[in-house]
Structures are given as C-alpha cells and as structure tokens.
Design goal:
Blueprint: H1 2-5, H2 9-13, E1 17-18, H3 20-27, H4 31-39, E2 46-47, E3 55-58, H5 59-71, H6 99-109, E4 116-118, H7 119-126, H8 130-138, E5 145-147, E6 150-154, H9 155-162, H10 165-168, H11 175-190
Antiparallel strand pairs: 1-3, 2-3, 4-6, 5-6
Protein name: Helix-turn-helix domain-containing protein
Length: about 190
Amino acid sequence: MAQVSKYRYLLNQYPETVQKEQFRIICHISKRTARYLLQSGLVPCVQSGKKTRNYTIKMKDIVRYLERREIHPEKYKLPPGSYSGTYAVKPLLPESVTTEELRKYYIESFRDIPDIVSTREAAELTGATASTVAKWIRTKKLKALSHGPAFIIPKVNLIDFMASDAYLNKRLKSQKFHENIGGFLSWKEGK
C-alpha cells in the first residue's frame, strides 16, 4: 500500500490538469520521453490539435503512471532507436474499435473547431495535404460543399470520414494521423 500513496501528494500540489512541459518536470523525464508516453497512449491525455500546448494531462493519470512505472519500468521505456531520430511512435488501433467510438472521440476533440472547415484546415486536422483532401472530395470519400472555386467541409462530414475505413486504412500515414490515433487510445483508456 505504501507504493500507492507515495505520489498522492502531487494531487494537492498541482492543478487538476497540466501540460506536457509540467508533466515531464513532475516525472523527471525528457521531452522526447514525455512525447512518446503521450503519443503512444501509455499516459492518457487529451490532444487539442494546436501546435503548442497540445497535450492536457490529468494529474490522477500522472500519479497512476508514476505508480505503475515503479512496478513495471520496462513497459515505459522508449523503444530502441528513439534517441537516434530513426524511430517514430506509431500507435495501432485494436481490431475491437468501432466507428462509433472514433466518432465520439473526434466530436469531443473537435468541439472548439468551427462547424465548417476549409480544405486547408481539413488537411491540418487529418495530416494530409490540401490536394489530398481535394482528391478525397473528388472521389466522394469525403463529402463537401462547393463554395466558388473551392470546397468547404462540414465538421460532421470530416468526423465521419476520419472514423471511416477510407481514412484509417490509407497507405501513407502522417505523423498527425498517428497523433490522432494515440489521442484516441488515451481518450479511450481515460473513459
């Protein structure tokens, strides 16, 4: 029982949620290790999609991580090649994940995003290029509305597409794609 209560004092010392930088300082780990733990879903977090201050981590999840790290340190070690720059975190979706679960995650994650997005904004959210988004629209994988010479995409349609097999099974997967999957895995574990 001593191990369980060893880190409980942190819950009173810090706010309910913290950012990645505070997380790494609390846990005495490097920036790269913190990013790996968050992207891989080993430490649950919510990703906002912003370029900075992207991760929000609950203190109770940090305490749980510190407790588990003492019991199973090998589980939280970075894979070989992580510090040489040759390794990128690539979380995988379990086969049991449903489209509805993914939709719920994206609805919650995109709640601050406007109801209509441009192809450029859709590209940022999906990790694709604007021309790839336009191709998805032309091939009717992603439903959009014509707005002059450009397209606008209802957020609901973008969420439906990102939860579909067309997005999940695409051949070339970007770093943003893997961040989205890691965010979903963290979100699901936090439920």
